[in-house]
């Protein structure tokens, strides 16, 4: 694949696709310690055929974004939260912690080195950053790998869901994404491998993605394949599911705070029963890649439950989106420590 050329990109129509940018960060764990790590130009990894990532899925990743402000500065949104979640994911798979401050430092190095690829302010584009740790080395037994790689690469992206901030319909899945005491809370590859077939089924039926129900009884909403769920009740409470098998979304926790402190809504993390959707006047899916994807309706057992509208964004969802993206792009005052400059 040819290296990406920033001068040839159509910033207004980026989509969500891999590009081979000039630089990525790579560090190795060997003999019980991490190397300092460095920026490299090669986008390929040369690893043992016996690497635990290949057979047993011993790997964790993150997703965060860099934003260009109207003043042409570049900033990150809550990278410390991604560092912390990455730490938890690695711990769950018995991988060595990568120090959280070094994680943020590596992210900043990669953004700086690829600064030409941070889309201009006003295009809606951002630089999506993908930190990743994998178990490598010569070992066939089911036990933690003898060596690890930590890498951070990036690519400019637009909307994750086609249509971005226009309502889309979702359908419930018969499958589970993760078990309650499984790895749902960790950002690990196996959860996403498990989601490929349900996503394909949903997409073949014309839905943006599926909504998973709780793996115990299939009665409560968990989350979508790549985003958490929220609903706005008729009496203005921002409600989002609480479950041990969903990914603790940085965006979701940010919206919970903004809903309460900036929009004056009530907030609740609790059960969201699939047969009680008419408590909500609006609903959405939220995440780093998805930002806020307004949910037009959810299909369940052949019935489509429409929230606000299948074509128009509800006013509360719009306000949440404006507040969140305003903070991310630096046009709305950020709560303390939510943004970090990359300079
Ligand atoms: N849920 C899943 C399964 C995800 O992959 C993501 C994306 O990271 C999210 C939720 C949203 O999390 P965040 O807001 O931290 O990006
Ligand atoms: C993210 O929002 O960062 C995600 O990880 C979603 C998806 C691209 C896996």
TrEMBL record:
<dbReference type="InterPro" id="IPR005786">
    <property type="entry name" value="B_amino_transII"/>
</dbReference>
<comment type="pathway">
    <text>Amino-acid biosynthesis; L-valine biosynthesis; L-valine from pyruvate: step 4/4.</text>
</comment>
<dbReference type="GO" id="GO:0052655">
    <property type="term" value="F:L-valine-2-oxoglutarate transaminase activity"/>
</dbReference>
<dbReference type="GO" id="GO:0009099">
    <property type="term" value="P:L-valine biosynthetic process"/>
</dbReference>
<keyword id="KW-0100">Branched-chain amino acid biosynthesis</keyword>
<dbReference type="GO" id="GO:0052654">
    <property type="term" value="F:L-leucine-2-oxoglutarate transaminase activity"/>
</dbReference>
<comment type="pathway">
    <text>Amino-acid biosynthesis; L-leucine biosynthesis; L-leucine from 3-methyl-2-oxobutanoate: step 4/4.</text>
</comment>
<dbReference type="Pfam" id="PF01063">
    <property type="entry name" value="Aminotran_4"/>
</dbReference>
<keyword id="KW-0808">Transferase</keyword>
<dbReference type="InterPro" id="IPR033939">
    <property type="entry name" value="BCAT_family"/>
</dbReference>
<dbReference type="GO" id="GO:0052656">
    <property type="term" value="F:L-isoleucine-2-oxoglutarate transaminase activity"/>
</dbReference>
<comment type="similarity">
    <text>Belongs to the class-IV pyridoxal-phosphate-dependent aminotransferase family.</text>
</comment>
<dbReference type="InterPro" id="IPR036038">
    <property type="entry name" value="Aminotransferase-like"/>
</dbReference>
<protein>
    <recommendedName>
        <fullName>Branched-chain-amino-acid aminotransferase</fullName>
        <ecNumber>2.6.1.42</ecNumber>
    </recommendedName>
</protein>
<keyword id="KW-0032">Aminotransferase</keyword>
<dbReference type="InterPro" id="IPR018300">
    <property type="entry name" value="Aminotrans_IV_CS"/>
</dbReference>
<keyword id="KW-0663">Pyridoxal phosphate</keyword>
<dbReference type="GO" id="GO:0009097">
    <property type="term" value="P:isoleucine biosynthetic process"/>
</dbReference>
<dbReference type="InterPro" id="IPR001544">
    <property type="entry name" value="Aminotrans_IV"/>
</dbReference>
<feature type="modified residue" description="N6-(pyridoxal phosphate)lysine">
    <location>
        <position position="187"/>
    </location>
</feature>
<dbReference type="GO" id="GO:0009098">
    <property type="term" value="P:L-leucine biosynthetic process"/>
</dbReference>
<dbReference type="InterPro" id="IPR043132">
    <property type="entry name" value="BCAT-like_C"/>
</dbReference>
<dbReference type="InterPro" id="IPR043131">
    <property type="entry name" value="BCAT-like_N"/>
</dbReference>
<keyword id="KW-0028">Amino-acid biosynthesis</keyword>
């Amino acid at each position: 694949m040819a290296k990406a050329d920033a001068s040839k990109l159509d910033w207004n129509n980026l989509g969500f696709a891999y590009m081979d940018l000039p630089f990525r960060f790579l560090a190795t764990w060997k003999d019980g310690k991490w190397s300092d790590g460095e920026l490299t130009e090669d986008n390929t990894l040369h690893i043992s055929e016996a690497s635990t990532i290949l057979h047993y899925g011993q790997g964790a990743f993150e997703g965060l974004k860099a934003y260009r402000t109207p003043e042409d500065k570049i900033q990150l949104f809550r990278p410390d939260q991604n560092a912390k979640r990455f730490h938890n994911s690695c711990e769950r798979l018995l991988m060595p912690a990568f120090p959280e401050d070094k994680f943020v430092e590596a992210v900043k190095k990669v953004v700086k080195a690829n600064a030409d690829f941070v889309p201009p302010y006003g295009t809606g584009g951002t630089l999506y950053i993908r930190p990743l740790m994998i178990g490598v080395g010569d070992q066939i037994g089911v036990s933690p790998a003898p060596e690890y790689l930590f890498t951070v690469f990036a690519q400019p992206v637009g909307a994750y869901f086609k249509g971005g901030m226009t309502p889309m319909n979702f359908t419930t899945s018969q499958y589970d994404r993760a078990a309650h005491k499984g790895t749902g809370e960790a950002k690990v590859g196996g959860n996403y491998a498990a989601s490929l077939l349900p996503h394909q089924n949903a997409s073949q039926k014309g839905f943006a993605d599926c909504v998973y129900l709780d793996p115990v009884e299939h009665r409560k909403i968990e989350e979508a394949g790549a985003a958490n769920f929220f609903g706005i009740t008729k009496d203005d409470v921002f409600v989002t599911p609480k479950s041990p098998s969903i990914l603790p979304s940085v965006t979701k926790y940010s919206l919970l705070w903004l809903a309460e402190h900036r929009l004056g809504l009530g907030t609740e993390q609790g059960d969201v029963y699939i047969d009680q959707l008419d408590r909500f006047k609006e609903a959405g899916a939220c995440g780093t890649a998805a930002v806020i994807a307004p949910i037009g309706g959810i299909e369940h057992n052949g019935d489509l439950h429409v929230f606000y509208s299948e074509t128009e964004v509800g006013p509360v969802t719009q306000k949440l989106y404006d507040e969140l993206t305003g903070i991310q792009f630096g046009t709305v005052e950020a709560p303390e420590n939510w943004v970090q400059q990359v300079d």
